[in-house]
Specification:
Elements lengths: L9 H7 L5 H14 L6 E5 L5 H8 L3 E6 L2 H14 L4 E4 L11 E6 L10 H14 E12 L1 H8 L3 E5 L3 E9 L4 E12 L4 E12 L3 H10 L2 E8 L12 E8 L9
Parallel strand pairs: 1-2, 1-4, 2-3, 4-5
Antiparallel strand pairs: 5-11, 6-7, 7-8, 8-9, 10-11
Helix pairs in contact: 2-3
């Protein structure tokens, strides 16, 4: 789920991410929240994409706000909201311009959304906005693809997805400073014309080291409570592909939006 790119691709996103078990991922994040004493309250699903996790937490009786910069992704999220009869509030905002009506209890940013932010200064702005809108002792949980994954798994690989109505060629190009340039060539079946429509999406993802993330969180007055590897409750290893960060806000009464 990303705020960057994902225009026409938004309408194919759910089909191409069928391998993601949102029920399992939601349950994992929920367990983290329970361990941190968060059993209810206002939850922001930052870079919520098509709203799968937003809808999951709405079913658990959290007050959910889904935030994404892609109008197309939010259109798909709104359709799920109507189907489920949920009361999720969806807002169209870039992460670094997060602007809420008040403070919240939890901010969740999942599915490597922060990797799509390729400028460190922008990640810092995002952390600042999250910290600003978190309650005292508020919880910030996010996951990122690791440097190892960018260098050894994504790297310069090509992946092909051949589904019933979509064919996708996913090409990666590893650049400097753990930046991966991603090109998607998608062929979507048009039953009216009995043909395939072709379109292309391009975006980039950057991996940040633990030291970089820790420094940015510290500058945003947030402390790391725990770091887990690959959706477990174990410490990350050298070959960990996804790191999950659990952070708490350092409350400052006089903090103001910049």
């Amino acid at each position: 789920m990303s705020e960057f790119g994902y225009g026409q691709f938004a309408y194919s996103y759910d089909s191409l991410t069928q391998n993601i078990d949102y029920q399992k991922r939601g349950a994992y994040f929920h367990e983290i929240m329970l361990q941190q004493g968060k059993t209810k309250g206002i939850l922001v699903d930052l870079a919520c994409g098509t709203g799968s996790l937003s809808e999951y937490f709405a079913r658990l009786d959290y007050e959910v706000i889904g935030v994404d910069a892609s109008e197309e992704m939010l259109q798909m999220a709104q359709e799920k909201k109507l189907e489920n009869g949920s009361d999720v509030l969806y807002l169209c905002q870039p992460m670094q311009e997060l602007d809420l009506y008040g403070t919240v209890d939890i901010v969740l940013c999942a599915l490597d959304s922060l990797n799509h932010v390729t400028e460190r200064e922008t990640v810092q702005q995002i952390f600042q906005r999250v910290s600003l809108f978190l309650n005292e002792d508020g919880l910030f949980v996010f996951d990122v693809n690791t440097v190892y994954k960018h260098q050894h798994v994504l790297a310069n690989q090509t992946f092909v997805y051949d589904l019933d109505d979509i064919y996708c060629v996913w090409q990666n190009q590893l650049e400097q400073d753990n930046l991966v340039h991603i090109t998607l060539d998608l062929f979507e079946y048009d039953p009216d014309g009995d043909c395939y429509d072709r379109y292309q999406e391009e975006f980039k993802e950057r991996a940040y080291s633990h030291e970089q993330l820790k420094g940015m969180l510290d500058a945003a007055d947030m402390d790391i409570v725990a770091v887990y590897g690959d959706d477990t409750f174990e410490l990350p290893a050298e070959t960990t592909q996804r790191a999950i960060y659990v952070c708490k806000n350092r409350f400052c009464k006089n903090r103001k939006a910049e």
